[in-house]
Amino acid sequence: MARRLKHWGWGYEDEQPSHEDLRASADFIRARLGFGGEPRAHVPLSEVVLPEPRLSAPRELEEIAFTDSYERALHSYGRSYRDIFRAFRGQFDHPPDVVLRPRSEAEVDAGMQWAIGEGAIVIPFGGGTSVVGGVEARAYERPVVTIDLKALDRVLEFDPVSHCARIQAGATGPRLEEQLAEHGFTLRHFPQSFEFSTLGGWIATRAGGHFATVYTHIDDLVESVRALTPAGVWQSRRLPGSGAGVSPDRMLLGSEGALGIITEAWVRVRPRPTHRASSAVRFRTFGEGTAAVRALSQSGLYPANCRLIDAEEAGFTGAGDGSHSVLVLGFESATQSVDTWMKHALDLCSDHGGAWERRGSRDSAGNWREAFLRAPYLRDTFVAMSVLSETFETAITWDRFEAFNDHVLGAARAAVAEVCGAGSVTCRFTHVYPDGPAPYYTILAPLRELEQWDAIKRAASDAVMEAGGTITHHHAVGREHRPWYDRQRPDPFAAALRAAKGALDPTGALNPGVLID
Amino acid sequence: MARRLKHWGWGYEDEQPSHEDLRASADFIRARLGFGGEPRAHVPLSEVVLPEPRLSAPRELEEIAFTDSYERALHSYGRSYRDIFRAFRGQFDHPPDVVLRPRSEAEVDAGMQWAIGEGAIVIPFGGGTSVVGGVEARAYERPVVTIDLKALDRVLEFDPVSHCARIQAGATGPRLEEQLAEHGFTLRHFPQSFEFSTLGGWIATRAGGHFATVYTHIDDLVESVRALTPAGVWQSRRLPGSGAGVSPDRMLLGSEGALGIITEAWVRVRPRPTHRASSAVRFRTFGEGTAAVRALSQSGLYPANCRLIDAEEAGFTGAGDGSHSVLVLGFESATQSVDTWMKHALDLCSDHGGAWERRGSRDSAGNWREAFLRAPYLRDTFVAMSVLSETFETAITWDRFEAFNDHVLGAARAAVAEVCGAGSVTCRFTHVYPDGPAPYYTILAPLRELEQWDAIKRAASDAVMEAGGTITHHHAVGREHRPWYDRQRPDPFAAALRAAKGALDPTGALNPGVLID
């Protein structure tokens, strides 16, 4: 039997640690955090009661249609803390009625057309790793058909001259990387969900990736997109650049399944880097680190990695000893040595009080990435031991960053203290631009009930909005961020987007609840 | 009296050469090209007959409303060869009925609202340098109000920390650069129309600028945009990056005045570069140069200048002696020496057969830019001496470039030979991406009548479309490129855009004829 994903958490069922291992992890975590309970076990699927499916697939879709509890539970939620909290407790109020797993674009189209004909809503589903309620049915008056694209996982064409590949939307990070590796190439898009999330999901949600500068979002790696809409096939030309009107690709990027189902894309890939340089630079304060990163972001050096981590978070993740902020800095190239780049970057860091070891830091970027990709597994343990673990992320210009950070940290810490009585809020930069950073905040606190999460999320999001940030730099809007997104986006733009959706999807079948109503 | 722009051509009236100088230029050009007639004089404005204005401005707009022949003629056309050809001959069939020159955003709004109330169409007008019929009224059943934004030309705010400025849409290149220079900063966006075109026009048309890599279009320099639509003010937040749904800024970029009137934007500026390196690299063939530029585009070196010019065009413009292709290569930085960058780039050129002088090429980029910005003046002379001078530009992936170029050059040369009996078609790259170049073609040929221009434009555009290119990389769609753009853009996207426009501009007042109907 093939490995099965956990229906309630991160990763495969066979990766779930034994209760003994879980207790050992919990003891270790509790000792560091000062809070957290004994780990409990999740409600097994056999004890989960789901509402009866309200639809059954027609004969021609039977082979790809699933209505069993496992598939319906697995596709009920994304993978936010809030999702895992509920799934862990066996709470699945709004599962899809039918899960389709098409094996071809034609089957995607047939499934979408059938669902629309039935008056159902259609939720496109990639890795299901949304942390913003992007794949969760909340309006439950209409039947729900979730279309899981993971069987469309092939690299269909590879262009070694233009360094591009045509890839199906359902390919996960590892699947597309293993196929590209046969050619010595890589996409190098490593969101934290890399192991399970898919190219189509990245495009629909404007996922942030590996590169800390220039090529920060998947947007920058997309050459053309193909999507199925109820109004027909949306296919752009393969073009390295174009100025022909409003960009059609940029209208699908971030469309979150509301305009169509992305089925494939041409993306820009690159040879595996052969030259690397990596350093972990220490700063006495986050402010000094911020000044150095600002200088780096405005230097034209374009580091591949440029993650500034505050002292507390660095201590907790092992990137530092907790006494200083750490900048994980990296350059990479498949063409030439990057030593000059690193030298200039370290000179800038030095100008702002940075210090680093001459040796021994070559693997800091690799270590950091390994820890980064393992973090979602740890979160399952946090849920089991009643520790709230939540992140929120944004972007803000440099001139406002200090006041912004004070306001947001202050509001989030006050909410954590009030709601949970203890806990921490830490900050790192995930991506940086010449005009500002993308700060990423991590909250850890003791939790009794989900309403505490809601209250903290609300306080943090309010603070981000008040201080001029974006409700998300790379986690998307989904259903969770809607109240704040609605305050952020220009009203005439929302009217335009609503009309655009109306033209493409007149029955409002496609992922209702995200972005616009 | 203030300097007046020529109502028929490029630049100011006082810059028009004397007839004697014009004859000398014509003799020189004729000797090089082997064709071209004696220069004639343009039809003076006093001999131009315009249709009577069908509207007059209300009392509250009187101070900013103009209906004199000069203003109406000046605002009748953009500055394509086709436009100058007609204006030179005194042919102004569809002048705007009223030209408004608002001095504030409130006056822009009042003007737009008044025009819509009158059932007029509204043409937003920046520098009026469109080469694609972007500001020309063709549907003439409704009265036409052109809103010229050039009085809104101030840098309103400067942010020295984030390296950003808030600039009014009517600021021309020189106007905004002189204000930024007070702070030691520069936008470094130098389209060929730089002297007269405006920030708002650049955003509306997705203009291509100075940087040959990474920051190729104005798109990449825009932090937020503010526009007036009939449905209200469209204002995005100042954000260095965001992933909150479809980008609102990307929907205004390339909207060509059809969705709203852009009034201001925050843009990313930078300190003036203090480190520069520049080289002119010779290649025996354009193919060798192409291979070198491909390697450069995929190297991560990101040259600021990377213009490959074929032998014939290099000979004509003085960049070379006509026996070899020339790559104008430049790096610049305000932070660190760029010598290492240039060394790596020249190594790559050398690998592909490139050769260069050790000394004496430091000014090649500057010379090239000077000649580049003077070219539109020369075109007035071409019009006067009945020489067809036309450019078309596109983008294509590297894997298809050779076949593409053969097809497009072949089709354009065949059309020139058939229609004009003589002439040349040359090629250069204006911008390059890791996945392909943006080729730019220049046509020079003897001309008798405008239908010859139409036939050649048609043949070239057909060839670009057939071979997989985009109808424009940075000249916009306007009215001239519509037939080919309509074949290029995805149908569902056009439906979405049409619906978006309908929601914002229900009377279809804003610049009808561009992009969509």
Greatest interface: A-B, 100 and 99 residues
CATH class membership of one domain in chain A:
Alpha Beta
What's the mean pLDDT score of chain A?
95
Described by strand count, sense and barrel closure, the largest sheet of chain A is: 5 strands, antiparallel
Which architecture of one domain in chain A does the CATH hierarchy give at level 2? 2-Layer Sandwich
Q: What is CATH's topology name of one domain in chain A?
A: Uridine Diphospho-n-acetylenolpyruvylglucosamine Reductase, domain 3
Q: Please state the oligomeric state of the protein chains shown.
A: homodimer
Give the overall shape of chain A, derived from the CA principal axes. globular
Q: Which parts of chain A are unreliable, with pLDDT below 50 for 5 consecutive residues or more?
A: none
Quote the distance from N terminus to C terminus of chain A: 42 Å
As a whole number of angstroms, the C-alpha radius of gyration of chain A is 23 Å
Helix % of chain A is: 25-40%
